[in-house]
C-alpha cells in the first residue's frame, strides 16, 4: 500500500466530513461507515490510520474549533472592556448558539467514558483555569474586580461552569439547574467577581429550560 504523502490533508478531510455529518445527523446517529462513505474514495483503513473511533474524531473536532475560536483570545482584543467585563462577555458568549456550541453539546455524552472525562478535566485545569486567572488578575489591576486568591477563584469558576453545571457529570432537574445558576450568581458576586449580569442570567435561564432531567 503506498504511503500517504499528505496525512494532514487526510485528517482535515475526515474532520470536515465528520463535522458535516454530526451537524446534519447528530453524533449518535453517525457511524464510522457514514464518515468513510463520504470521504471521496478514502478507505476505512485510512480512517483508522488516523483515528481509533468516532469518539476520537469529535474530540479532535472540539479541540480544533476551540483553538480556532478561542473566546478568551477574542475577548482580550476588546481593549474597551475592563477585566470584569471581559469575564462577563466570556459567560455571555456561552449562550450564543454556534457550531462549536452544538458540537460541544453532542460531545457531552463522551464524559461518561473515564478516558474522555480525564482528558476533559486535564484540559480544564491546563487551559481554562489559567485563562480565567489572567482575566481576573487584569480586573484586579484595573479595579473592576475586588478579590483575593485569583488562581483559586479561577479554579472554582472552572469547576462551577464546566463541571457542576454539566448534567452528564452532575445530573439535575430544571428546578435544580436554576437553583445552581442563582448560586453561581450569588457566590461570584460575594467573591468580588460578579460573573452574571441580569441579561446573561436571563439568557442562561432560557438555556436551562431544556437542560437537566425530563
UniProtKB/TrEMBL annotation:
SUPFAM superfamilies registered for this protein in UniProt: Homeodomain-like (SSF46689), Tetracyclin repressor-like, C-terminal domain (SSF48498)
Signal peptide extent: none
Pfam family, one: TetR_N
DNA-binding region: 32-51
Entry keywords, A to Z: DNA-binding
Domain HTH tetR-type residues, every copy: 8-69
PROSITE patterns given in the database record: HTH_TETR_2
GO MF, any single term: DNA binding
Protein name: TetR family transcriptional regulator
Source species: Faecalicatena orotica
Amino acid at each position: 500500500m503506498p504511503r500517504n504523502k499528505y496525512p494532514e490533508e487526510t485528517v482535515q478531510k475526515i474532520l470536515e466530513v465528520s463535522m458535516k455529518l454530526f451537524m446534519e445527523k447528530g453524533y449518535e446517529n453517525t457511524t464510522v461507515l457514514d464518515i468513510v462513505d463520504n470521504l471521496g474514495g478514502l478507505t476505512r483503513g485510512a480512517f483508522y490510520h488516523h483515528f481509533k473511533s468516532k469518539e476520537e474524531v469529535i474530540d479532535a473536532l472540539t479541540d480544533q474549533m476551540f483553538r480556532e475560536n478561542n473566546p478568551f483570545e477574542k475577548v482580550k482584543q476588546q481593549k474597551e472592556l475592563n477585566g470584569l467585563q471581559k469575564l462577563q462577555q466570556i459567560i455571555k458568549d456561552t449562550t450564543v448558539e454556534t457550531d462549536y456550541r452544538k458540537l460541544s453539546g453532542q460531545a457531552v455524552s463522551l464524559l461518561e467514558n473515564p478516558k474522555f472525562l480525564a482528558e476533559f478535566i486535564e484540559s480544564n485545569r491546563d487551559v481554562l483555569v489559567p485563562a480565567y486567572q489572567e482575566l481576573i488578575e487584569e480586573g484586579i489591576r484595573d479595579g473592576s474586580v475586588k478579590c483575593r486568591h485569583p488562581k483559586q477563584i479561577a479554579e472554582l469558576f472552572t469547576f462551577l461552569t464546566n463541571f457542576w453545571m454539566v448534567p452528564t457529570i452532575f445530573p439535575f432537574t430544571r428546578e435544580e439547574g436554576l437553583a445552581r445558576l442563582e448560586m453561581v450568581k450569588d457566590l461570584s458576586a460575594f467573591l468580588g467577581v460578579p460573573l452574571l449580569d441580569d441579561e446573561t442570567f436571563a439568557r442562561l435561564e432560557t438555556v436551562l429550560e431544556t437542560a437537566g432531567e425530563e
